[in-house]
């Protein structure tokens, strides 16, 4: 029986509508880090709150999570919003 990966891809929407994409092993912890004033959150999200977690999906492993994160960062905002609306990654991104 194959063990499920603990890696996730997630997307956060900023107050100005921008979408941030990242990977982590703990979505809740990482989202809280981004929302705090501490140094552990992404610089790109500082001062952009309130933040909203709009997407998360479990990945096969860290490698897949990194590859898909890179692909998503190259998408247009409209394509990212369609992905969020669909609630799951399409097969071509996996």
Summary keywords:
94 residues, GIY-YIG endonuclease, three-stranded antiparallel β-sheet, alpha+beta
Model description:
By secondary structure, the chain is of the alpha+beta class. It is built from three helices and three strands. The longest helix is centred in the C-terminal third of the chain and has 12 residues. The two termini are 21 Å apart. The model has no long low-confidence stretch (mean pLDDT 91).
Produce a short descriptive summary:
This protein has 94 residues and is of the alpha+beta class. It has helices at 27-35, 62-73, 77-86, and strands at 8-13, 19-24, 52-58.
The separation of the N and C termini measures: 21 Å
CATH names the topology as GIY-YIG endonuclease
- Could you report the average pLDDT, rounded to the nearest whole number? 91
State the name of the first-level CATH class.
Alpha Beta
- Gyration radius over CA: 13 Å
Tell me which CATH architecture applies here: 3-Layer(aba) Sandwich
Figure out the total of helices. Answer: 3
Strand content: 15-25%
Structural class: alpha+beta
What sort of overall outline do the alpha carbons produce when their principal axes are compared? globular
Strand order of the largest sheet: 2-1-3
- Tell me roughly what share of residues is in helical segments: 25-40%
Number of strands: 3
Q: What is the CATH superfamily? A: GIY-YIG endonuclease
The largest sheet is: 3 strands, antiparallel
């Amino acid at each position: 029986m194959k063990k499920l990966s603990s890696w996730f891809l997630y997307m956060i929407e900023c107050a100005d509508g921008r979408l941030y994409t990242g990977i982590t092993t703990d979505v809740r912890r990482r989202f809280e880090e981004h929302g705090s004033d501490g140094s552990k959150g992404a610089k790109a999200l500082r001062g952009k709150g309130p933040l909203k977690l709009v997407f998360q999906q479990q990945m096969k492993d860290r490698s897949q999570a990194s590859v898909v994160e890179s692909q998503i960062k190259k998408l247009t905002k409209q394509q990212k919003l369609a992905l969020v609306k669909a609630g799951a990654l399409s097969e071509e991104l996996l």
